[in-house]
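About this split. The held-out portion is used to measure sequence recovery: a designer receives only the structure tokens and must propose an amino acid at every position. Recovery is the fraction of positions where the proposal matches the reference. Here is one held-out target exactly as it appears in the evaluation file.
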């Protein structure tokens, strides 16, 4: 789906949503009249220090607003910007700041839902889509924390070995289906149905949930079997020795 079609399916009025370069910001109302704050990073652009600090400022402005309306974060990016300037300015700190701002917003009562409708990778993916309280996607989205050739360079393992591991272990593999299996993506929305209704359903589910469900989802789906029981054991040990 194109961005225009996504917005039209999400909101009954999009006049207050503006696209400034590769950044999307504004607010809209869904089919039941509820207000939704909208942020986004679009056009498959890289995320650098300038974009990250602007997005973080917008998230903090929403966090301090009088309402507790949710934030919908639309994502279509490449990776973080691989430039000398961005690295020297401390790009990793800017990305971490953006992710923490999204956590602050959740704590302030603004549910955060990431909608991945294009691509995203590496630090840009972690600081935007994965930093939201809930992440959903549309068919055709293509996320990757790290692609296999990059993983081969970092781990010094042959690419063929990583491909074999990726075929059986979801945490090794990029792509939409694997992120769903690991619980990183809660659900894939149906573009043939109104996205507004699916957003409201996701928000209702998020409101009924306590804590982060990603590890348990990964366990149920068979993509990440150890995270949930290990986390539960750590909490149990803390209670026993607290």
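Reference sequence for scoring:
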């Amino acid at each position: 789906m194109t961005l225009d079609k996504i917005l039209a399916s999400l909101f009954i009025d999009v006049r207050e949503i503006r696209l400034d370069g590769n950044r999307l910001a504004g607010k809209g109302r869904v089919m039941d009249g509820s207000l939704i704050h909208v942020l986004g990073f679009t056009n498959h652009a890289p995320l650098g220090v300038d974009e990250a600090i602007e997005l973080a400022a917008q998230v903090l402005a929403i966090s301090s607003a009088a309402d507790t309306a949710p934030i919908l974060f639309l994502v279509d990016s490449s990776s973080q910007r691989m430039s000398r300037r961005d690295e020297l300015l401390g790009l990793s700190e800017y990305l971490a700041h953006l992710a923490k701002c999204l956590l602050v917003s959740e704590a302030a009562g603004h549910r955060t839902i990431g909608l991945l409708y294009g691509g995203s990778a590496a630090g840009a993916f972690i600081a935007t889509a994965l930093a939201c309280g809930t992440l959903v996607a549309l068919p055709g989205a293509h996320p990757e924390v790290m692609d296999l050739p990059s993983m081969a360079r970092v781990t010094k393992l042959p690419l063929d070995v990583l491909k074999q591991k990726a075929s059986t272990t979801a945490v090794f593999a990029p792509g939409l289906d694997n992120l769903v299996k690991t619980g990183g993506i809660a659900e894939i929305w149906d573009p043939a149905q109104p996205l507004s209704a699916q957003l409201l359903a996701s928000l209702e589910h998020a409101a009924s949930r306590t804590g982060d469900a990603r590890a348990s989802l990964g366990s149920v789906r068979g993509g990440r079997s150890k995270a949930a029981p290990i986390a539960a054991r750590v909490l149990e040990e803390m209670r026993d020795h607290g």
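Annotator remark: The beta strands are 17-20, 23-29, 35-47, 71-80, 112-116, 119-121, 134-137, 142-144, 187-188.
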